[in-house]
Amino acid sequence: MNKEFEFLEIINKIIPNEFLGNDCACLNEYNLAISQDSLIEDVHFSLKYMTPYEIAVKSLLVNISDILASGACAKYFSIALSGNLNNFFIEEFYKGLNDVSKEYNLQLIGGDLTKSDKIMVSICVFGDYKNRKISSRYNAKNGYVLAVYGEFGSSAQGLFNLQNEIEDDYFIKIHKKPILYPEISSLIAEISEFPYAMMDSSDGLFDCLYQISLKSKVKIEFDYSKIPHKTTNKDFVLYGGEDYCLVMALDERDFKKIEGLTKIGEVKSGEGVYMNGLRLEYNGFKHFD
Questions:
Q1: Three-class DSSP category at 78
Q2: Does domain 20-128 have CATH number 3.30.450.20?
Q3: Structural domain boundaries in the chain
Q4: Segment (H or E) for 111
Q5: What does 90-117 look like in DSSP terms, one character per residue?
Q6: Positive/negative CA dihedral, 192, 60, 176, 92
Q7: What does the pLDDT profile of the chain (289 residues) look like in tens digits?
Q8: CATH superfamily of 145-280
Q9: Cβ–Cβ < 8 Å for 33, 67
Q10: How far apart are CA 111 and CA 123, in angstroms?
Q11: Using an 8 Å Cβ cutoff, are 45 and 39 in contact?
Q12: What is the Cα–Cα distance from 128 to 34, expressed in whole angstroms?
């Protein structure tokens, strides 16, 4: 078992709660979605490849992505920043936060600054989902359409190119500044009549399919040739993380109402994830292994 999943099981036994299992906690009495993620130097980014400005941009975007994947609209954020910081880093970093905040109409409401040996960025984003139907990994049902939006494997290709000093503008740009899809996530949340499952591919396409299959207790079948991608590396397409594409299981009646989605497969009764008839074992990003 993935060590992260094992840790979550331990946590849930000690503090049972209904929020573990999705990327956002959704508080219905407030129409409030909350998500928090951390990015650590030499784990999620390297100063050899990214500037303070770029680190800030990516850190905030990946946290916004979880809110969008829930079906909510990001509104506010707080940030805890640690590291051996200096004036230049702070100025460039907060310029990056400011530019993303303006682009997504977000407001910074607080945070914390501390000293540490490595840079750590921990961001909490608050989203509103009034008059929207929120997603859950537990909502996929037999007969649902498996659909995606975005391009898979490009970020992993960009990281590979950076690490191997391969000159490239396209993939590296996507790795440093992920593309998000607020319009399509809002549309799905606003017009869906039936419960749906939606995730972003932060830990890879396969991880999304595995999580939906596991939590919804369904079988996922998909066709590799249908997956939108530009890289020729199949492992990057299936397992490469940090693309932040949208992966969803929708009732077919809702799927037909939303233009631009790509159908890659179907949800059926049973269990497991199958590609072109072959069952795939778990192979996603492992935070602790």
A1: strand
A2: no
A3: 20-128, 145-280
A4: strand 107-114
A5: HHHHHHHHHHHHHHHT-EEEEEEEE--S
A6: positive
A7: 567 768 877 877 887 766 555 678 889 999 999 999 999 999 889 999 999 999 999 999 999 999 999 999 999 999 999 999 999 999 999 999 999 999 999 999 999 999 999 999 999 999 999 999 999 999 999 999 999 999 999 999 999 999 999 999 999 999 999 999 999 999 999 999 999 999 999 999 999 999 999 999 999 999 999 999 999 999 999 999 999 999 999 999 999 999 999 999 999 999 999 999 999 988 755 554 5
A8: PurM-like C-terminal domain (3.90.650.10)
A9: yes
A10: 8
A11: yes
A12: 9
Look up residue 46 and give its two tokens. 């390297």
Residues 237-251, buried b or exposed e (16+ Cβ, 10 A)?
bbbbbbbbbbbbbbb
Q: Which two tokens stand for residue 193?
A: 């009549």
Q: Find tokens 């990516």 and name the residue.
A: 58
Token pair belonging to 240: 């490469």
